Amino acid sequence: MSDYPIRKVLVANRGEIACRVFRALDQMGIASVAVFHAVEAKALHVRAAGEAVEITGDTPVAAHLDAAQIIAAAKATGADAIHPGYGFLSENATFARAVEAEGLIFVGPTSDSIALMGDKISSRDFAAAHGVPVAPSVLPTEDMDAFAREAAKIGFPLLIKASAGGGGKGMTIVRAESEVRQAARIASGEAQRYFGDGRVYAELYVERPRHVEVQVLGDGQGRVIHLHARDCSVQRRFQKIVEEAPPADLRGGLGDEICAAAVRLAEAANYRNAGTVEFILGADGRFFFLEMNTRLQVEHPVTEMITGVDLVRAQLDVAAGRGLPMAQGEVPLDGHSIECRICAEDAEADFMPAIGRLRVLDIPQAPWLRFEHGLTEGQAVTADFDPMLAKLVVHGADRAQAADRAIEALGRLSMLGVTTNIDYLMRVLASPGFRDSAPNTGFVAENAAALAAPAVEPQARDAVLAAAALGLPEFRKLIFEVPDLHAAIGHWRN
């Protein structure tokens, strides 16, 4: 690719998404640069890159949020472009603007698009102005009593949300006017802590909705295509743990309507690069704009599985001025894909994040399986970063086969040394509530009892632990091999 305008890319991220981007760069013959905090010096993403630059900060997260330091690393290594991955600085308009100002290519939308769509209030107004359905809402004022009265006019339940937020932070459901004032204050305080922006708003809360999103690609010249929709309704604490594509049971052309609305919004924004338009879908078939994520999504592999489109490569091609990979009518739709987020957490203790050391990592292999990760055996799993460790992604001819394959792969996946949600995910995929219909966002809470871990007999538990221990080379050496000192003494005994 001697004529390709991007020769070297710094990935301003870590873990599995950094490894994913490096894989695409290697396949395209583009040089790569990793950044890492000292605690990640031996991480897989550091080894996966052509070169790596250490970044510093009071905490590992603070280092990855230091825009000036990351841009300096890109310039020092001669990188042409920066790929932000997801999280960290990926939706930071100030960072994107600074990258552009330094003459570097930001592999993502323009800073103006990030600013427009990253604010939930301005993006809702923009969506409404371009004929995209939005839920009835009310903006906050300094007068909390007036805010509560206006919110009550919409009706209950209401969802109070942070304008600049995401990931479930700064979100509260209220079911009576008497709850609005306190809930708004709590949501505002949480939003200020997490995002530095305490603005909140209230909108009609759709009971038991589905969370449906559309993957879009734009060339920045007014041309936008969609790569079908995904369903991300299986969530805990407003955070996704199972995603699938395409969504099940979108009847009567509803899926086409949702995709068309997403494209209409992205076209109006003159959107460039990859993005996701998210909607909530009620049981009555009404759907409302939720937000637009101006970046690559965690769940992008399920879209790649059903379309065959490499989204990271498409991002790079758009950033390089090569345009979109295909026309809308050429986008394939093949089978069904399911992604499971493997998290270091205890599903039996309200999904409390877990720490430990990954002693064994045994990944199953199959032509229909992808395991996206940035893990190595012996790696410490700490509270420094998000608890998501990896993503297990499968493809099947249909939804039933994809679910069966996901259960099979999860059952063959070994991650010892840290508590994970692997068994919980298997119970989700095997449950009638998932297999027989499309789940809604209340699925986890509504099925809590059915999804709880079954009781284990002490004898069975001990047998499993013994078998697992015998599988560890360190344990076998300790138990069965003669210690070095005794071996030197030989057969002599006192």
Question: Explain this structure to me?
Answer:
The protein is α+β, with helices and mostly antiparallel strands and 494 residues long. The chain has four domains: 8-107, Rossmann fold (3-Layer(aba) Sandwich); 136-204, 2-Layer Sandwich (Dna Ligase, domain 1), CATH 3.30.1490; 210-451, ATP-grasp fold, B domain (D-amino Acid Aminotransferase, Chain A, domain 1, 2-Layer Sandwich), CATH 3.30.470.20; 455-494, no CATH class. It is 37% helix and 24% strand. It has 20 helices and 23 strands. The chain has an eight-stranded antiparallel sheet, sandwiched between helices. A hairpin with a 4-residue loop joins strand 10 (210-219) and strand 11 (224-236). Helix 5 packs antiparallel against helix 6 (111-118) and helix 13 runs antiparallel to helix 14. The longest helix is centred in the middle third of the chain and has 19 residues, at 177-195. It is globular and about 75 Å long. Mean pLDDT is 91; it is low at 490-494.
Please state the second-level CATH architecture of the largest domain.
2-Layer Sandwich
Residue share in β-strands: 15-25%
Question: How are the strands of the biggest sheet laid out side by side?
Answer: 14-13-10-11-12-15-22-20
Largest sheet geometry: 8 strands, antiparallel
* Outline: globular
Question: What's the CATH H-level superfamily name of the largest domain?
Answer: ATP-grasp fold, B domain
Total helical elements = 20
Give the fraction of residues assigned to helices.
25-40%
- Rounded average pLDDT: 91
- How many domains? 4
The end-to-end distance, rounded to whole angstroms, is 73 Å
Number of β-strand runs: 23
Task: Specify the structural class.
Answer: alpha+beta
Task: Supply the CATH class of the largest domain.
Answer: Alpha Beta
- Uncertain segments are 490-494
Radius of gyration: 24 Å
CATH topology of the largest domain: D-amino Acid Aminotransferase, Chain A, domain 1
